[in-house]
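Budget justification note: compute hours in this period were largely spent on complex prediction jobs such as the one shown. Inputs:
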Amino acid sequence: MLEVRGLCKRFYGHEVLAQVDLSIRPGEVVGLIGRSGAGKSTLARCLVGLEAPNSGEIRLDGVAVTPGSGQARRRIQYLWQDPTQSLSPFLGALDTVRETLNGFALGPAATRAARAGDILNDLGVEGAMQHRRPHSLSGGQCQRIALARALAAEPDILILDEPLSSLDLATQVSTIRLLRRVHRATSLAMLIVSHDLAPLRQLADRILVLDDARIIEDIPMPDFAARATHPLSRAYAETLDPAR
Amino acid sequence: MSERTLRIPALRLGIGSGRVGLILGLVLMAAFLALGLSPLLLDLPPPEKMNLLARLAPPSPEHPLGADHLGRDVLSRLIAAVPVSLGAALVTMTAILVISLPWGIVAALAGGRVDMVMMRLADIVMAFPTLVLALAVIGFMGASLEASIIGVAAAWWPSNARLVRALVLSASQRDFVHAARLGGASRMRVVLRHILPQVLPPLAVIISLETASVLLALSALSFLGIGVQPPTPEWGAMLNEARPFFAQAPHMLLAPGLAVTLAVLAFNLVGEGLRELLDKREPYLW
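Corresponding output:
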């Protein structure tokens, strides 16, 4: 279980996160929504150690997660908002995934290339595509490779920062399907950052609403429209099409 | 006049793009390389051989570029100076890189106090004017080619280290570098596979441009008489030797002067050409 207590983050005196508490249970999918600049991405980046919080603590199964805690870090993986920028232009897809297997010494060294190929195959990155570099791949394909890299680490929690925002509508739909399939197959806990509630309806068990550096609501997804009380949450609830 | 009529062949080669400059620079470098190797093929008099009867002789079939104040063949000395002048510039640039590359990388990646201490040390060295620091080293070691190489390298490395640090800092902020770290890649692997490939192309441009400046600095030291010592031929030293005889034998000055100019031009053209090529590259295709 991931637990965050009293997390604070300031940039140049400006408070971006103020005493944020949250917890994510094993296998749970949590959506984190909020306005642009609300601190969603900063919170996500703090969880994986890309930003150092000013105070507060992050614990995974009771063990404090710090930038140096290698195995704890392996268990929390991150999917960038722009998948193309998150893949090395110098490596093909297979090498990108293999780098993670090598980095965490997962499995026998001799089988890592085959394992990387299997992970990519599972996500629909097959054949010659496994050797192509990101500049010759679409955003959706890059997203799958980035997901394969994160899954290769065998994480317990996957944090996805606006995973759909840089994709076209058709790719968004296929990515949502893919994420649901991955969740069913792995029972991976996920924290999905989004500025849009609609796609989370198909993925999330619970929604956190972040505003003004604080989590203002924590509502189960099925009851979101009924239980949202804050004006911002109400506004999000109104974007949901009741017919769907 | 229609646009079609403006498409003369020279423009289609891309004069404005720097490609012609790059080719011209590479041709000049190849010419210097051929010149450096030519003593193996040509029957030239030894560069140190004096003939006082031919003192200050103008260009002639016997001495195509004339003779100097000691009757030595200027062409022979000019060619013999190619490996000395260019070699010294390349060795100096290599020494600068050997210091500045790891210095800049370590400072950028270590950050905090390590970065602060390393950069302040570099700043202290940078506070001295380049030639003054080189002169101090030469004064301590005695005038020689080796001393001028060490002196110029000692004065030059901090600015390069600062540049490398800036390039590494910028490169290490890319998402894919963070992703490699999150993916468990070791620090060494991140540097070698993700940061250096980003840093090297712009660094190649800078190296080429700076080699020209280093060549000028070494020639200046030799011109002042504190670099390469007689009778070793070197372009700056040849200019120094020619100075008192400028009115009587201008050929003594013109040949090494032109050699320095063309060598500097070659490095600058290659540097500028590389810069323009890299600026126009498709993202991630370097």
